[in-house]
Amino acid sequence: MVGQACFAPGMVKATLGTGCFVLTNAGKTAPISKQRLLTTVAYCLDGAVTYAVEGSIFNAGTAVQWLRDRLGLLDDAEQSADLSASLDDTAGVYFVPAFTGLGRDTGPAAIVRAALESVAYQLNDLA
């Protein structure tokens, strides 16, 4: 938070890499999140503690890596910017990069089961 100059309550910083971690300056009082986010110490200057609320996304850069390494849709990660910019929108396609679940460890069996269940959900929508 200090390196990004997030000194006022409400200021936000995001660190993107393999995952994504967002911290919001919460001021001098440690808040209790109603959305199950983490309350943490942002920094301590001149003996005064400033708190932050943190949310985590476990797969950010790994989503692009998966598109490149597992699906072969990209030659390199940088290509994702041009390819995605070639369309006006996603044409209704959604991608949920939950390779490790949404905060839980999973594997091939869970992914295959989720894919099969997605068909069942769509069948239910037709009923």
Percent helix, as a range, is: 25-40%
Structural class: alpha+beta
State the oligomer.
single chain
Q: Residue-averaged pLDDT, rounded? A: 91
Question: What is the helix tally?
Answer: 3
The structural domain count equals 2
Beta content: 15-25%
Order of helices and strands: EEEEHHH
The number of strands is 4
Poorly predicted ranges: none
Net shape: extended
Spatial arrangement of strands, main beta sheet: 1-2-4-3
Distance between the termini: 50 Å
Major β-sheet, in short?
Answer: 4 strands, antiparallel
Using only CA atoms, what is the Rg?
Answer: 19 Å
Q: Key features?
A:
alpha+beta, extended, 2 domains, 127 residues, 4 strands
Short description:
This protein has 127 residues and is of the alpha+beta class. 28% of the residues lie in helices and 24% in strands.
Task: Provide structural commentary.
The protein is α+β, with helices and mostly antiparallel strands. It contains three helices and four strands; from the N terminus they run E-E-E-E-H-H-H. The radius of gyration is 19 Å and the shape is extended.
Topology:
Elements: E1 12-16, E2 20-27, E3 38-45, E4 48-57, H1 61-69, H2 79-85, H3 108-126
Antiparallel strand pairs: 1-2, 2-4, 3-4
